[in-house]
Amino acid sequence: MRDKENGDPGRPGSQSSLKSANQHRVVRALQMSGELTQAEIARRTGLAPATVSNMVKELTAAGMVKELTAAGMVTVPDGDHPGQRGRAVRLTRKMGLAVGIDFGHRHLTVAVADMAHDVLAEERVELAAGHRAEEGVVQAGTLLDAALDRLGCGRTSVLAVGMGLPAPLETDTGEVGGPSILPGWVGVDAAAIASDHLGIAVHVDNDANLGVLAEHMWGAGRGTTDLAYIKLSDGVGAGLVLDGRLYRGRGGTAGEIGHVTLDEFGQVCRCGNRGCLETLVASHVVIALLEPSRGTGLSIADVVAMAENGDAACVRVLADTGRHVGVAAASLCNLLNPERLVIGGELALAGDLLLGPLREVLARYAVPSAVRSLEVRVAELGSRAQVLGAVALGLRSALPA
Ligand SMILES: [Zn+2]
User: Fold this and answer.
1) Cα–ligand 1 centroid distance for 13 (angstroms)
2) What is the pTM of this model?
3) In the chain, what's the furthest Cα-to-Cα distance?
4) Domain spanning 15-94 has what CATH number?
5) Do 15-94 and 222-380 show the same overall fold?
């Protein structure tokens, strides 16, 4: 936040710049976490408790933050003693909004959240499968305006937009790659056309990155600093939050765990390599293994239901899937030593039928110290992971520098 009172935020070492920088740190810490007690703000910003107390008073007077009367809604548990918990502090709606736009195969969802990380409105429509990118963006603008209308706000309240597309993104050009289940978007710079149309900065990311952001903010990864998320669906990919930040790598390719080689002479993968993890565990591979004996037209939900009813083949295939993922995840844990591994995507429906064998293989192949305190959990957000991840991307993009 700029210090509007004296208009001199830049003079280093002066009381005025210190005050402004401190306000900036408090606002940033709140925006990162959604809600914090004053003790938590002090710890995260390194500011003295008395300074934090003054900052909160000033920001409250300016209508930028509010203190809740009870601390029962704290969303970021981090081991405070109950006696140290004060009242929770959050940013007000005056501090702006963040938006998530999620394009699915046949639907479009737009969600709006405040800087306290509360999702305030959500709108959804069906989409024509072959729609052009421009048509999709116009629809998104219409839904966004409807959602903002319900909140009594306009587009000027929106600080940033996150957007998810079920398609590969070319990291050097920003273009949507092919082949895609959204053919009308191939070759389009999605972030550019959406930013142009909406008049707001739009950031686009892939499904695994959106998944890890959503689970980190609202789901099974809450409260972690180093989180790995593996999405197991028709595509397989990992999203990584390292040291509290989304890790994309130099060109945005980090997390391509689906293309880790497990069998050098195995099936040819869509990436051109052979025996990638994805060729062993993608949803359609799991189903193809079972269809000869269990009939055609199966879904992953069917396979999980049959396994839960004791079908030996379904149990075996889900367990083997967990083992394959475990081999690749063991390497991931050796390299990155995350504190939690969250398994998402439709195969996460299998729960411990898949996670049990995965944990066994992790224990066998990973360096013991890399997984000793590792928790492996099922993702919590299910089919909402994408739109919530887009909102989380918007919230992160709205952070002050
Ligand atoms: Zn591959």
Assistant:
1) 54
2) 0.88
3) 76
4) 1.10.10.10
5) no
